[in-house]
Amino acid sequence: MSAARPSEPAALAAAATSSLVLVHDPVSRAVAPDYWDWSADAHHAAVEALTALDDDQVRTAVARVADNPADSAAALGLSAALTALLCRPGGESGAVDALRSAAARTESLSRLLVQPGAPDRPTAGPATEAPGTADLLAVLAHKPHGGTHPVDAAVVIPFRAADDATGRVRNLAAVLNALTDQSHPRERYRVVVVESDERPRWREVFADACDAYVFAPDPGRFNKSWTVNVGVVHGARPTELVCVLDGDILVDRGFIARAVERFQRPGTQAHWPFEDMLFLDPASSADAVRTRCLEAAPDPGQDRLRGVHLRRPPGGCVWLREDLFTRIGGMDERFCGWGGEDQDFVWRAERYGPMDRHNDPLVHLHHDRAAHRGDDGVPFYEEVERAGFCSWPCDSDFGRLDKNTPQPTGA
């Protein structure tokens, strides 16, 4: 095996266990369907190598995980058994060597890695029931200031949820709750929620839970790029920094203070605060929200939660100076429907200003996944891809609230 591939036994054991979970758990695969498609063959090969091992302890653990991929204790037990096997010198067993090679290949190309979570984490009962939206908004650490004065940072959250999409609504309530509980002075940052839909379905719920609520009328497919641009132009300014934050990212108490401090370093223009993002399963999402929001813990307790790490994703949470956001013309508003907009945005931002990456823990709350393709299987961003990524003009008149308003004939 190449010396350039991962070889640490515990890492390879975790990778093999992750492959087994992904192969047998459609919920974990659905976190990032494209990422799964790109590495599915390698994961299946790792599982084949895993099931070929002639070891009773491993065979029993594999059967338990395959039968119930959410069994954290079984997954951790399998990883421990595999670590012991993989610590043996190479050449002793052809089957072990084959697993070592297959797991190393998976570790070398997959952007998905399952985190089993703590063995005693609750999987049923009251602890796995997500707190309600009203409960989360009733215990805000600080009331929004609602001011339009200059601030250090503005957090812009694009949002859309159908009338029956209670999961996304509850997630946004949790995100807003966590954003009121920050170590940075409350009057020095602004939280902006931009709801883009055919009508302001959730204004009465969220308008008093943020500093600025903006309604961006759009009856078509959700356009995250335009929604964010509207938030920067009509809600965030005046601000030194902009954070584009998805409405399901549950942040810790030092989230804003760390970002502000990092931008004090000369030459800093933009960054991701994380390397890998942990997409939580439903039970762990409820646990994280209860811990961070109702128990007022400083963080969600990421290490004990179960989910799937997305390695170095382009979106979810990006910080940059407002000047850089404006210099590149904001986000490309031609992206309509989910997919592609985050990658295009950070590519263009990095062209004009260096993008740093930090290693803060960051968790993504569970919700039903939105479609990224049309009924014909074509990605929503196909039109932009044909025109060329990074082709959005820097001098674009972005963030116009009347973008989707019918113009009078002859205008």
From TrEMBL:
- Annotated GO MF terms: transferase activity
Keyword Hydrolase, does the record have it? no
Where the record annotates domain Galactosyltransferase C-terminal, the positions are: 315-352
**InterPro entries hit by this protein:** Galactosyl_T_C, Nucleotide-diphossugar_trans
| Superkingdom as given in the UniProt entry | Bacteria
Keyword set for this entry? Transferase
- Signal sequence extent: none
Name of the protein in its database record: Galactosyltransferase C-terminal domain-containing protein
- Origin species: Streptomyces thermolilacinus SPC6
Q: Taxonomically, what lineage is the organism?
A: Bacteria, Bacillati, Actinomycetota, Actinomycetes, Kitasatosporales
